[in-house]
Amino acid sequence: MTLFFNVTDAVGMAPNHGITRTERQLAQALVGRADIAFVAVDGGRALRVDEGDVVAAIERAVPEATPIVERFGIDPPSRPPIQSMRTSLRRSMRAPAEERRPTQPAALRSEDVLVSVGLDWVHDVIDLARRHRYGAGGRYIGFCYDLIPIDHPEWLFPPDPDGFRRHLGAVVSTANRVVCISEHTRTDLLRHFPDVDPDAVAVLRLGADAAVAHEPRHDAFAASLFDGEPFAIYCATIDRRKNHQLLYRVVKEWARSGRPGNVAFVGRLGSGVDDLIDCLRHDPLVAGRVVHVTNCDDAHLGALYRRAAIAVYPSLYEGWGLGVTEALAHATPCVVASGSSLEEAGLGVCEVLHPLRTGQWADVVGDFLVDPPMLAPFDLPTWADAADELVRLATT
Amino acid sequence: MTIWYDYTTTLRNTGRSGIANVEWSIGRELRELRPDVGVFASQERSGLSVLDADVDLRDAVYARSGDDALAIGSALPPPGSGLRHAVLGALSGRPPWVMRTALLTYHSARRLGTIASNRRRRRSPRIPARPLLRERVRSDDVVVSMGADWGGQLADELGALRAATGCRVVTMVYDLIPLSHSHLAFHNDPAFFRAYFAGLLRSSDLVTCISEQTQRDLLQFAATEGLPAPRTAVLRLGEELHPDATVEADEVAVTDERTGDFYLWVGTVERRKNLELLYDALRIIESTGAAVPTIVVAGSVGWGVSDLLDELAQQASAASRAIVMLGSVDDHVLDGLYRRARALLFPSHYEGWGLPVREAAVRGCPVAVGDSPAVREATADIVGATILPVDDPGPWASFLSAPAPRRVRAVVHAWSATAAQLTALVDGFAAGPEVAT
Questions:
Q1: Model confidence pLDDT, tens digit, residues B391-404
Q2: Beta-ladder partners of A201
Q3: Is the pLDDT at B68 greater than 60, yes or no?
Q4: I need a labelling partner for B50 at 20 to 30 A (CA). Which of A113, B110, B282, B435 fits?
Q5: For testing the chain B interface, which of A249, A257, A259, A279 should be mutated: the one with the most B CBs within 10 Å?
Q6: Full-model pTM
Q7: Residue pairs spanning A and B at CB distance below 8 A
Q8: Is B294 exposed, middle or buried (0-12, 13-18, 19+ CB in 10 A)?
C-alpha cells in the first residue's frame, strides 16, 4: 500500500502561508518515509512528483527575504516587494522544467490511499478522488480547514457559499475519512452535513516548529522595530476576518489613557481593510505605535516572536490558529479570541478574550506588555507528529 | 445698518445637509425677526449677488414640503448592495484576475460617478442675473454667512467685499475636524483646509462657532498658525425640525407607550460617525445567543465605510440583518423616528456639536453618545443621557441589552433664539466693544 500525498500547491508558486504552508510542512515531514509517494493534480490526472522535487520546491518557497516595514502615520505607504517578485520570477525561470511541471502519470492502485490537504476546490482533486475510490476501489482522505465560506461569506472576496458547499459536499460524499484541523471545525462540518457518519470525521492537530535559523541580524531587526520598546505581535494576513480593527482601537485606548504600548502586524495586505489601513496611515493618535511588516521570512519572524512581549490573535473566526501555535513554539505567550478554534490552538495556556471587547484587550495586553506572563508547560505538537497521525488516519 | 444674509450653501445643495439646514433655519428666523434683512448668494459668474427672497428661495430644498423634495437621496442604494452584489454574484467562481479586473473597473466607474455627481452639486443655482451685492452694501452693514464653501471662493469674495465697502463680516465655523482628525474627513488634505480656515479668519470680523469645543479648536488653530486671535462667539444652534414637525418649546417628552422596538441612528453613514462600533456591539450580543435588537439608520451613505457596507450587504449574520438602512428621511419621518425609538445611538468619534442628540433629547428620546468633547457639551443639560466610549463596543452591547432606558428631559433651544443671539452679536458691532475672544 502506498500513501499518495497531493503536493499540487506545495510545489507551486503560492506564498507560504495558510493552507499551502500546511501542505508544505506535512509534505516535508513525509519526505523519506516508506510507502509515501507524491503527486500533483492537473486536469483531474495524478502526476508523479519526485521527493527531490518536493524538497527543492519547498526550499524555493521559503527564500530568505528582507522585511519591508511601514510605521503607520510616519512612513509613506509600503510598496509591493518588487525586488522579491523579480527574484521569484528569476528563480522560477532557472528551475528545471520538470521540477515545475510534472508529466509522468502516477498509477494509483486499489490498495493505495490518496490524501489531499490543499486548495482542492481550485484543482480537480474531487474528480480524481472519485475515480480512485469508486472506479479503482481505493481510499481517499479529504481535508477540511473550516467552513468560513459557508458560515461567513461576508469575509470572502467575492463570496461563494454555494460553490464551497458543493465542494465540501463532494468531499464528504467521496472520502473514506474527512480530517478536520480542529474539534471546532469538526463540529461545524457535522452541523452542515448531519448525514455524515461522525466516526468518519477525524481531527488532526497541526504542527508548529520554531524557525531554526537564527542570526544576530534577525534579532537586530526585531529590536529596531520600536526602538527597543515592548510590543505585541499579530502574525496574520491583514484581512477583515482577522480583526486588526480591534488592535487599532486598543492602541487608541492606550494613547488616550497615556499607556505605552505598540503593536506589530506581520503579514500581507488582504481584503476588506482599505478603510482600516487608511485610518492607520492618517490617525495622529496612533502614529508610530503600529507597524506593518511584510515580506518577512521565517528567520525574521522567529526573531520578532522572540522579541515580542506578547503575541495576540483577535481573529473573529479560525479553523485552527497556526499563528498561535507558532507563537507558542517560540515560547511567546499569546492572547487569543474566543468564539472559534483559537482556544484549542492555544493548547490551554493562552488568555482568551472576546474578539470585540476592546477594553478587555487594552487592559490585558497592556498589562502583559509591561509584565509578560510566564507560559505554563504545554505539549507542543510538531509537524512530524502531525504527519505520523495523518498516516495513521489515512491507513486505518 | 442692514444685515445681509447669505444663502449660498442652501442653494448649492440639491439635497439636505446639516450645514444647509443650519443656514436655512437661521435665515428663516432672522427674516422673521428683522424683515429688512437682505439676502444674497455667491453665483458662479457674477459672484456675490443680491437675491429676491420670494422668488429665488422658492425652489430651495428646505422651502419645499413633501417627500419628493425632502427625501432626495433616499432612493439611492448603499454602495455594496445592488449592482455590486450582482457583479460579485456573476463573478463567483471565475479566475481571480477576472474578478480583480472587473472590481477595479466597477470601483473606477463608481468613483467617476461620484465625482460627476459632486460637480453637479457644486454648480451654482440657476438664478437670473441679479444686482451685485457690493453695489448695495454700505460701510455700516453687516454681512452674515453661516454656510461653508470648502473651496474658499466664498471666503475670498466676502473678504473682497469687506475691503471694497468697509462692511463687517460674520462667518461660521462648524468644526476643524479636517485638521484635527484628518483621517475622519472626506478630503484628507490638511494643507487645503489650513488655507481655507486661514482665509475665513482673514475675511471675518467675527467668527461664530457652534460649540465651545469648536471655539477652542479654532483659537488653537489660529495660535498654531501664528494668526491673530480672531473675534469669536459661540452660537447655540436650534433644535426644531421642519416647521411642520416642530416641537413646542415647552414640550419635552412623549409617553413610554409610544416607544418602538428599534434603536435609532441619525446622520450620514461615514467613517467619523462610527456605525461599525454599533455593528460590533450587535455582534457581541449575537455571540451570546441573545436576540439582536434592530438599529434603524436614517441618513445617506457617505465615505470611508465601504468595507463595512460590503459586509452588511451580505446579510450573513443576525447583526448585519439588524441594521436597517433607511437612507435620508424627511423631517416628518425623522420626528416620528425620534419619538418612537428606544434610544438614539450616537457613537461618533468627533463632532463640532451634536445636533441629532439635541433633536432626539428634546423629544424625550433617550440618547447614548460617544464620549467626545463637543458631544459632552451638547448633552450637558440632558437629564439621563448615557455617555459611552467611542472605541469599545462592549459597553454599547450592554446598553443595547439592557431594558429600554427611561425617556430623557431637555429644554428646546429654538432657532428663533439662535437668530436672536445672532442679531445681538451683530448689534454689538454698533456698540463697538469686543464681542468675545
A1: 999 999 999 999 98
A2: A178
A3: no
A4: B435
A5: A249
A6: 0.86
A7: 86
A8: middle
